[in-house]
Amino acid sequence: MIAFCRKLRQDESGATIVEFAVVAPILFLVLFGGMELAHVAYVKTTLRNALQEASRASGLEDGSTNAAAIDQKVEKSIKRVAPDADVKIKRTSYQDFSDVKTPEDFTDSNSNGRYDSTECFVDINGNKKWDSDRGRKKSQGGADDAVLYEVEVKYEKIFPLWALVGSSEKITQLNAETTLRNQPYGTQVPNEGVNICP
């Protein structure tokens, strides 16, 4: 019996399967995590390339009439690499680059540094209310206008690693934006806005 125990103790057959069982979870986590990161980078690169191409096409004279077709092309490019992606595209036009994401001017009559509903303001975008962003929403603008083109992409992660590491984040969200100037195919229409006092 002692000889059998000594022989059993020296027997290393099956040790590999035990070692693999210890190392495999870490190996698969690193492998699938790397593949997830690579996929996110690929989708992000595709998004940026599609956005760059769309912004070039949008700046042309026929950009405003072809806006839907340009947006469909962006969405199609993204869905090639993330088929279940939810793609949202926004355009906001401004008179100049310096106007991008800036509030409409107002008369700060009580000197508190913020707009109050009783104060006069300059309605730049024509919606008859004060906005913290003076841009015209859903607009490609006209000749020589600056346009902020934004794309938001949401899609489910390809591997369920989020569940293994105890996270609830199963959605990947990517955002990209670019600001372009429409070609000077005509004379830019000046927009001084309308003074409105409630």
TrEMBL record:
Keywords: Membrane, Transmembrane, Transmembrane helix. It holds the Pfam family TadE. The keyword Transmembrane helix applies. Residues 14-56 form the TadE-like domain. The chain crosses the membrane at residues 20-42. This is Pilus assembly protein. It comes from Alteriqipengyuania halimionae.
